[in-house]
Q: What sequence folds into this?
């Protein structure tokens, strides 16, 4: 395990982020980000080599303070970031006519602008030298399709994927940049939706391989970060159990 080159996982306190942290922890030291200190510590406890991982407890809605906060974590621990996984997600299901401006701003800040700020810092030579090698954004199939009540969420994930493609060109060949697009996955963020019997019944008929689990997405993230994906950049890897190819009426 390289004790100097860390993998930063934003949103590591639950769901896909936590599962990714547990999976990667056996082979690399991690910076585990989350806004809930107790849940973040719980994630570290579930990881292999728990003592090797650093916690970054921070609320990403405070976009203007991301740079200062992350810089302090890197400097205090004298570490560099080689890989970055952006797993945070804010989802509020609202028709546009009742969506307040503050919800739009917060959704864009958490799902998209925070990623911009983190990457902006990590590519600076004075902060992270030239250690960054791979980035994976956890987007959503919602970036490619529409759904009632999800207009702002769809827009935020669409922005993230567009950012990914531009970065893949700008940062090549030193840094590879890709997105993973999950479909319906059982996480705390989707729990309320997936506990609704009628919706669950409909999803069961629409997803050829059934509703997803965080481990399925974590596997895709692990692959894209690895040397096995060394000639892959600028791509959107859909992990949705076949939902988006199912045109059955």
A:
């Amino acid at each position: 395990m390289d004790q100097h080159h860390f993998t930063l996982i934003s949103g590591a306190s639950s769901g896909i982020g936590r599962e990714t942290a547990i999976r990667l922890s056996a082979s690399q030291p991690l910076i585990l980000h989350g806004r809930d200190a107790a849940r973040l510590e719980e994630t570290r406890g579930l990881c292999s080599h728990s003592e090797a991982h650093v916690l970054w407890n921070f609320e990403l809605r405070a976009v203007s303070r991301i740079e200062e906060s992350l810089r302090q974590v890197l400097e205090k621990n004298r570490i560099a970031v080689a890989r970055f996984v952006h797993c945070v997600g804010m989802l509020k299901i609202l028709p546009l006519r009742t969506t307040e401006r503050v919800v739009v701003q917060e959704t864009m800040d958490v799902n998209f602008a925070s990623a911009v700020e983190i990457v902006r810092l990590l590519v600076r030579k004075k902060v992270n030298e030239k250690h960054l090698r791979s980035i994976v954004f956890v987007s959503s199939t919602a970036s490619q399709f529409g759904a009632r009540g999800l207009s702002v969420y769809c827009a935020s994930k669409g922005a993230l994927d567009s950012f990914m493609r531009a970065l893949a060109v700008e940062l090549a060949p030193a840094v590879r940049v890709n997105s993973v697009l999950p479909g319906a996955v059982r996480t705390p963020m989707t729990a309320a939706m997936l506990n609704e019997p009628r919706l669950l019944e409909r999803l069961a008929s629409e997803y050829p391989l059934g509703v997803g689990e965080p481990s399925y997405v974590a596997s895709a993230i692990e692959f894209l970060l690895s040397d096995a994906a060394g000639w892959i950049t600028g791509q959107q890897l859909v992990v949705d159990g076949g939902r988006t190819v199912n045109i059955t009426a």
In short: The beta strands are 5-10, 30-34, 54-57, 80-86, 134-138, 176-182, 236-239. The radius of gyration is 18 Å. The chain has a mean pLDDT of 93.
